[in-house]
Design a protein that fits this description.
With about 180 residues, the chain is mostly helical. The protein has a single domain, classed as Up-down Bundle (Ferritin). The protein contains 5 helices and no strands. The chain has helices at about 15-45, 50-75, 105-125, 135-160, 165-180. The longest helix has about 30 residues, at about 15-45. The chain is elongated, with a radius of gyration of 18 Å. The two termini are about 35 Å apart. The mean pLDDT is about 90.
Length: about 180
């Protein structure tokens, strides 16, 4: 297994299997960064409970677009064009977690709790990537993902704490998310 750190200038010297594996990994990561937007932006910006919540959705979307841009640049530097994922329909997304739609505030909050957390773990795994250009872009991306997770942790808890119908809506959102995203 290759463990030496690889500088972008040396990429062409690498084994074709390494190149292919890195290219596929970057393509999937690019899809993960942009896939969530296709799930929630259309419905969540106009229907968020407050104007501040609308700003949170828009800011999160802008950060995810920037994450995509950074990953796409690293992929482009090795000759991999990931731009096709920008217009891929949800049902063709690489991770099943992005093959649906998020159209309630509770679904959006739970998405942040579950899916952004998974995204963090995936990015954290790249922190030791032997292709040094990838770990170099991660600190800011991971910092922003942690903020998304914080929202996803706090928002469902705040909604559930209201009790009654709010708690039931959060529970249904969790159940939908688990059924849609984690089971075949």
């Amino acid at each position: 297994m290759f463990r030496d750190k690889l500088d972008p200038k040396d990429f062409d010297k690498m084994d074709p299997e390494y190149k292919d594996f890195l290219g596929r990994g970057l393509t999937i990561q690019a899809d993960c960064e942009i896939g969530g937007l296709h799930l929630y932006v259309k419905d969540m910006i106009p229907s968020a409970p407050t104007k501040l919540d609308q700003v949170v959705v828009a800011r999160t979307a802008a950060e995810e677009i920037d994450h995509f841009r950074k990953v796409a640049r690293v992929a482009g530097d090795i000759g991999v064009d990931v731009s096709f994922v920008l217009s891929s329909p949800n049902e063709k997304r690489y991770p099943e977690a992005f093959r649906g739609i998020v159209n309630t505030w509770e679904d959006y909050a739970v998405f942040g709790f579950l899916i952004d957390r998974l995204g963090f773990y995936q990015l954290d795994e790249f922190s030791d990537c032997t292709y040094v250009a990838l770990p170099q872009i991660l600190p800011e991306i991971i910092k922003e993902e942690l903020n998304h997770i914080g929202f996803g942790t706090n928002q469902p808890a705040e909604l559930a704490a209201k009790g009654g119908q709010h708690r039931e809506k959060v529970q249904r959102a969790v159940e939908r998310s688990v059924n849609i995203r984690f089971q075949r």
